[in-house]
Each structure stands twice: as C-alpha cells, then as structure tokens.
Design brief:
By secondary structure, this protein is mainly beta. The chain contains one helix and nine strands. The strands form two sheets. It has a five-stranded mixed sheet with strand order 3-4-6-7-8. A four-stranded mixed sheet has the order 5-2-1-9, with no helix packed on it. The protein is globular and about 65 Å long. The mean pLDDT is 87.
C-alpha cells in the first residue's frame, strides 16, 4: 500500500497493557532499592459536595519542568486491602506547563479503621503501608511500612501522613 495517497488508513497494533492482577502476580527483575514514589495520605473536605474524603496521593520524587504529568493508576479495593497499581505517567493537556512532580489522588469516603495500602509497579514490585484512619478523631496513623516477601522485591515507595494537607469542615 503506497503511503502517498492511501485509500484507507493503515491499522496500527494496539499496545498491550498489563492488567492489575497480572502486575500483582508478576515477579520483578533484580534491581537496587531506589525510592521513586511517595504515598501521602490525608483528609480533605470538599466544600462543593459537602463531603469528607480520605485521600491517597501518589507522587513522583522526580520533578518535571517542561510538561505537567499525572501518574496513571488502577485501584483494586478488597475490604481492608487496597492495591494501587502504577501504570505509568500520562501527560496533561495544559497550555501552560507547570513545574512539579507527577501525581495521582485517589478519594475514598468511607475509610475508617485499619487499611493495608499496597503500591504495585508494573514489573511486580510491591511496597505496603499499614495505616489507621480515624476521621472522627481527625487522625491518620502510619503504623508500619512493609516490603512483602516476594522474589526480587525492592523498596521504591516511601509512605507518610501529610498533616499539612488536612482540611475539615469549619462548622
């Protein structure tokens, strides 16, 4: 088919994306520990909807200067276990570039009690943070950070509670 005057558009193959379950089951290649992401948790009050949320923010350590990026994630929620699979970075369509890290915010309305937040990379590496959410007492406690037993697993994510980002209903 000549490309100068095509009569029909060529079909491009679709890129295969790993499903979230496949990333969780994958065995990562052996690599050194390198912190690439930060998982920050906080409470946020939405004034427009008049709702209180528990927010999990995943952000990169690297800051981008030319483009604004967003971290693409898949979320699997099973009772007290939460799996956040990092799929990669996605460019935002902003006219004005902004300097800063790539990030994703995941909102939950009903987080009360103990939760195991698992951050999973596409290659299969998993890091886990154990949190206790208490919206009534306006507290989030990071109980423990765990690198689950898995062949070639490594540290790539730091966990923290972002108390400076807390917001509550002022009434």
């Amino acid at each position: 088919m000549p490309l100068k005057n095509p009569k029909e558009l060529p079909k491009l193959p679709k890129t295969r994306q790993k499903k979230a379950e496949g990333a969780i089951a994958a065995i990562p290649q052996k690599k050194e520990d390198k912190i690439e992401y930060v998982c920050r948790t906080f409470f946020k009050y939405d004034k427009l909807l008049a709702k209180q949320y528990s927010v999990i923010r995943i952000e990169t350590i690297a800051e981008f200067t030319s483009f604004s990026y967003e971290v693409a994630v898949d979320v699997l929620h099973d009772k007290q276990d939460l799996f956040i699979v990092i799929k990669g970075l996605k460019a935002n369509t902003n006219a004005v570039p902004k300097i800063g890290p790539a990030l994703a915010e995941i909102y939950f309305e009903d987080f009360i009690g103990e939760y195991r937040i698992n951050i999973v990379k596409q290659d299969g590496a998993i890091n886990t943070g154990l949190y206790i959410f208490n919206p009534i007492g306006k507290k989030i406690i990071l109980e423990n950070k765990i690198k689950p037993k898995k062949k070639n697993n490594r540290w790539f994510c730091e966990f923290s509670v972002a108390e400076d980002l807390f917001s509550f209903n002022s009434r």
